[in-house]
Amino acid sequence: MYTEVYETVMKKYGKFAALIVVILGTLLWLATAGSGESQSYYKTIAEVHRMGPESARKRLRVAGDIEKDSIQRKAGEVAFVLVGENQKLNVIYTGSEPLPDTFRDGAQALAEGKMGPDGAFHAAKIQAKCASKYAPKPGELYKPGGEKPAEAPQKISLNSNKQGM
């Protein structure tokens, strides 16, 4: 009798343990399978050129300055040229999201995508860095409420007033 009850309990726990193993295995597989596709490597324009055909197989992120008068808007895509380290990279953006307001000639941009067989970088995402005009000037602090930035506080030394010690 004891062995029959013991076997029934063990079968119940064995099924439960098998179910837990299957669930954990599925979660682990989903986590590892999805991470490889969303992974992108940050490269400079020079590094992308040196990669050759390998740059068409990997998702890359490339940063640079948008060349003056290079932005061309066509039906469903925007073509422009990124410049960095005296190298140029033709970029074609075909993403569904609108371009940032700061995306203009001379702005810094970050393109994420793959190199195409046509020699252009095909970007699915574009990020434009904010212009430095929004940052406080060196030595000034920002004051909320639209007021002029305050001057940086002066350093005060507590040791300068000590006499005869």
What would you note in describing this structure?
With 165 residues, the protein is α+β, with helices and mostly antiparallel strands. The chain has a domain at 41-131: OB fold (Dihydrolipoamide Acetyltransferase, E2P) (Beta Barrel), CATH 2.40.50.140. Helices cover 27% and strands 29% of the residues. The protein is built from 2 helices and 9 strands. The protein has helices at 2-38, 45-51, and strands at residues 41-43, 60-66, 72-74, 77-84, 87-93, 108-115, 121-128, 140-141, 150-151. The strands form 2 sheets. Strands 2-4-5-7-6 form a 5-stranded mixed beta barrel. The longest helix has 37 residues, at 2-38. The protein is elongated, with a radius of gyration of 29 Å.
If strands are numbered along the chain, what order do they take across the biggest sheet?
A: 2-4-5-7-6
Parts with pLDDT < 50 across at least 5 consecutive residues: none
The overall pLDDT average reads 79
Number of helical stretches of at least 4 residues? 2
Task: Give the % helix.
Answer: 25-40%
Gross CATH architecture of the domain at 41-131: Beta Barrel
Order of helices and strands: HEHEEEEEEEE
From the N-terminal CA to the C-terminal CA, the straight-line distance is 93 Å
Radius of gyration, in Å, reads 29 Å
Q: Report the count of strand segments.
A: 9
| Largest sheet entry | 5 strands, mixed, barrel
Approximately what portion of the residues adopt beta-strand conformation?
A: 25-35%
The CATH class of the domain at 41-131 is Mainly Beta
CATH topology of the domain at 41-131: OB fold (Dihydrolipoamide Acetyltransferase, E2P)
Tell me the CATH superfamily of the domain at 41-131: Nucleic acid-binding proteins
